[in-house]
Automatic annotation (TrEMBL):
<feature type="transmembrane region" description="Helical">
    <location>
        <begin position="97"/>
        <end position="119"/>
    </location>
</feature>
<feature type="transmembrane region" description="Helical">
    <location>
        <begin position="227"/>
        <end position="244"/>
    </location>
</feature>
<keyword id="KW-0472">Membrane</keyword>
<keyword id="KW-0812">Transmembrane</keyword>
<feature type="transmembrane region" description="Helical">
    <location>
        <begin position="125"/>
        <end position="143"/>
    </location>
</feature>
<protein>
    <recommendedName>
        <fullName>Probable membrane transporter protein</fullName>
    </recommendedName>
</protein>
<feature type="transmembrane region" description="Helical">
    <location>
        <begin position="155"/>
        <end position="174"/>
    </location>
</feature>
<keyword id="KW-0813">Transport</keyword>
<keyword id="KW-1003">Cell membrane</keyword>
<comment type="similarity">
    <text>Belongs to the 4-toluene sulfonate uptake permease (TSUP) (TC 2.A.102) family.</text>
</comment>
<dbReference type="InterPro" id="IPR052017">
    <property type="entry name" value="TSUP"/>
</dbReference>
<feature type="transmembrane region" description="Helical">
    <location>
        <begin position="256"/>
        <end position="274"/>
    </location>
</feature>
<dbReference type="GO" id="GO:0005886">
    <property type="term" value="C:plasma membrane"/>
</dbReference>
<feature type="transmembrane region" description="Helical">
    <location>
        <begin position="180"/>
        <end position="199"/>
    </location>
</feature>
<dbReference type="InterPro" id="IPR002781">
    <property type="entry name" value="TM_pro_TauE-like"/>
</dbReference>
<dbReference type="Pfam" id="PF01925">
    <property type="entry name" value="TauE"/>
</dbReference>
<keyword id="KW-1133">Transmembrane helix</keyword>
């Protein structure tokens, strides 16, 4: 067994500590990826597009360990951005409680179930489905330029609670199983289905994203998949990016968030599309 594999194979509640052959240059690149991911996640979601692929390049790190460590770093950034939104967003742009609470509860359970499946179901099987979903999201947002400029909540009462819980459960399950694009799907669901403006949807998505990360970690930590040293280092950078991103989104408003949203969705489509094409040609 190689040195990194030996370190990463440490089981129990603490999992691995730090891969043995990480160079200073690799660590710096991972920290830069975590900083960028925190900013993107805070503004519009989709930080996993940056952070998870960077972790998958670490020698000796299995996909499930990369996913688990990504959750540890991610929960620090999403918590920071959620608190920043709550403190600095105007009252009318803060998360609506009747939507946020059931969505958080559903997301927590969904992410735990998804994390349980993560070690047995290959993520590649979901990639084409995620790609199609993202293409639909991109087309809808481009075709409706006024979508998400202002809040027009379409659901009320018990129906609102049920739909929010179902969305949280479904997207939380995806986040626990695979991850990249979760924040993007949350924002689109809150804009396109619930009827929130982009800024308010982003603020709400941060609370839900905290729950998805927590739900996954409740499974990954006891299984020993989290590489703690690496995850905590990246968490510090993710916190900084999350704070800066949340302040940027609050200052710039829904139109800015919409533009970043389209850029991130486009980048996700290109990356996942290249994976699908590569698998077909292999």
């Amino acid at each position: 067994m190689s040195a990194p594999a030996a370190v990463l194979a440490v089981g129990g509640p603490l999992g691995g500590v730090l891969p043995a052959d990480l160079t200073v240059g690799t660590v710096l690149l991972l920290l830069l990826a975590a900083l960028a991911a925190g900013w993107v996640d805070a503004v519009v979601g989709g930080g996993g597009l940056v952070q998870l692929p960077a972790l998958l390049l670490v020698p000796g790190l299995s996909p499930v360990q990369a996913l688990a460590t990504n959750k540890l770093a991610g929960i620090a950034g999403t918590t920071t951005s959620a608190v920043t939104f709550l403190r600095h967003a105007p009252p009318g742009q803060r998360p609506p409680v009747p939507v946020a609470v059931p969505m958080v509860v559903g997301a927590l359970g969904g992410a735990a179930v998804g994390a349980l499946l993560a070690s047995s179901l290959p993520g590649e099987a979901l990639t084409p489905l995620v790609l199609v979903a993202l293409l639909v999201v991109l087309v809808v947002v481009v075709a409706r330029p006024r979508l998400g400029e202002t809040s027009h909540q379409r659901l009320h009462g018990g129906r609102q609670v049920a739909v929010a819980a179902a969305l949280g459960l479904a997207i939380g399950g995806y986040d626990g199983l695979l991850g990249p694009g979760t924040g993007t799907f949350l924002v689109f669901a809150l804009v396109g289905v619930v009827g929130l403006a982009f800024l308010r949807a982003t603020a709400t998505a941060k609370l839900v994203n905290v729950a998805t990360n927590l739900g996954a970690l409740l499974v990954f930590v006891p299984q020993g998949h989290v590489v703690w040293g690496l995850g905590l280092l990246m968490a510090v950078a993710n916190v900084a990016g999350g704070y800066l991103g949340a302040r940027t989104a609050v200052a710039k408003g829904s139109r800015f968030v919409r533009v970043v949203f389209l850029v991130v969705v486009g980048a996700l489509v290109l990356r996942l599309g290249s994976e699908v094409v590569g698998d077909l040609l292999a």
